[in-house]
Amino acid sequence: MRREVIYTGSNDKLIALLNEKGVRTTLISNIASFKTSKRSVFILFADEKCTDLLPDCSNHQLAWAKSKGIPPLYVSSHLDMKRTRALYQLGFDRVFKEDDHMKGLLDFLIPPKKVVPGHLLGGSNIYNDEVTKLFNLLSRSSAPVLIRGESGVGKTHLVEKIVKELYPSKKFIAKNLSEYSAHLLESELFGHTKGAFTGAVENRKGLFEKADGGFLFLDEIATLPLLTQQKILKVIEEKCVTPVGSNKSIELNFQLITATCEDLGLAMKEKRFREDLYYRLSLSCVHIPSIAQRAEEIELILYHLQEASDHKISFSDESIELLKQRQWKGNYRELQSLLLELSLKEISYVTPKNLPKVRDNQSEDGEDLLTQKQRQIIKSAGLPELIKKIELESFQATAKHLKGRTNQICEVLKISKSVYYRIQQSIETSVDAS
């Protein structure tokens, strides 16, 4: 998608170059009457004789561009680190130093076409369109991207695959913000200095600093407290972070990708999410469809989920039709749980007769959830021993099915990394003892 340039200032040479490349350019005359589109970009061409960062009229134009959601760019032949940082703090999305080729600016305005690899795509247009959109956004711009979609649709996994495809040497840091307690959240995000609070025994980098030079993916962005939202907005706009307990800011270069399964529009109405942060994050937005919306490709999804498994399971046409009718409220997690259950039962071919029924939080037909064997364990050794056995057997079966891949084991069992390592240590201890 080629951009349309709205500009102020003068730079006949560069305007001629843009026109030659097929980029439409329009000099701002009357802001109030100017019609914008999703392709619009505002560029301020700075006069090399101008010593001020922005003339008074340009302040007004910058504010107008930001209010319309139009990316503001700054182009000048005289830039240094101090001036560049100040421009980012004023609110410019990108700052370009003028040269003979202007490759950075041209790549931004006329993104080079990249073909989405087939292994990233699914079988339905509704999914492929959103994957293609996300792929193109991450390949062409460093602006924030917001991903919406139900819990369990694979947002983290998809983003990581695309980033690794496009930038295999760049860092990718992914965290779920709902896992952090409120009093530790800012330390995790921004880092802290030694002695900043009780327990801070050494300097520690936060997620933003760890992602410097790469990508930071923050899931469940709607769970952030309002005060932390304000601080994240400042980090995005200034491209620098101040660790807890420090008065020195650290300059950073990262691309932020956020995700949520919540309705942020409702969260803003309820005053739980800041509007200014929402508009900053949602300039580029992608929606990942649920499994229920992709019912026609259930068989293909099940095939891909089993690619790394030793125990392959196939499904009859009748069982596939039944699976298409399910709601799949847990999305990929629910599908993975189904495959795990089938694997534990050593079922290799699924028919309507042996297809597990939909599970909910209650037993079916009032039937007791406890088996006779489980009752005997409780009677002889107590409930803690039963819980321990269920935990170990579930962990070992899942680890075998997923070939020991830590992140996927935690996702399927819905456990944290600390619980994962506790169980792993328990297994190793019991092996050593025997």
Question: How does this model look, in words?
Answer:
The strands form four sheets. The protein has a five-stranded parallel β-sheet with strand order 2-1-3-4-5, sandwiched between helices. Helix 3 links the parallel strand 4 (72-76) and strand 5. The protein has four domains: 4-109, Rossmann fold; 118-287, P-loop containing nucleotide triphosphate hydrolases (Rossmann fold), CATH 3.40.50.300; 294-350, no CATH class; 373-433. By secondary structure, the protein is α/β, with parallel strands linked by helices. The radius of gyration is 26 Å and the shape is globular. The longest helix has 19 residues, at 383-401. Residues 361-367 have low confidence and may be disordered. It contains 18 helices and 14 strands. Helix 15 packs across helix 16 and helix 16 (383-401) packs across helix 17 (406-413). It starts with a strand and ends with a helix.
What distinguishing features does this structure have?
5-stranded parallel beta sheet, Rossmann fold, alpha/beta, single chain, 14 strands, 434 residues
Name of the level-1 CATH class of the largest domain: Alpha Beta
In CATH, the topology of the largest domain is named Rossmann fold
What does the overall shape look like?
globular
The secondary structure category is alpha/beta
Tally of discrete structural domains = 4
Helical percent range?
40-55%
Largest sheet: 5 strands, parallel
Compute the gyration radius: what is it?
26 Å
Instruction: Report the mean per-residue pLDDT as an integer.
Output: 84
Q: Please give the alpha-carbon distance between the first and last residues.
A: 64 Å
Q: Provide the CATH superfamily of the largest domain.
A: P-loop containing nucleotide triphosphate hydrolases
Number of helical stretches of at least 4 residues: 18
Count of beta strands? 14
Q: Assign the CATH architecture of the largest domain.
A: 3-Layer(aba) Sandwich
What proportion strand?
Answer: 5-15%
> Strand order, biggest sheet?
2-1-3-4-5
Low-confidence stretches: 361-367
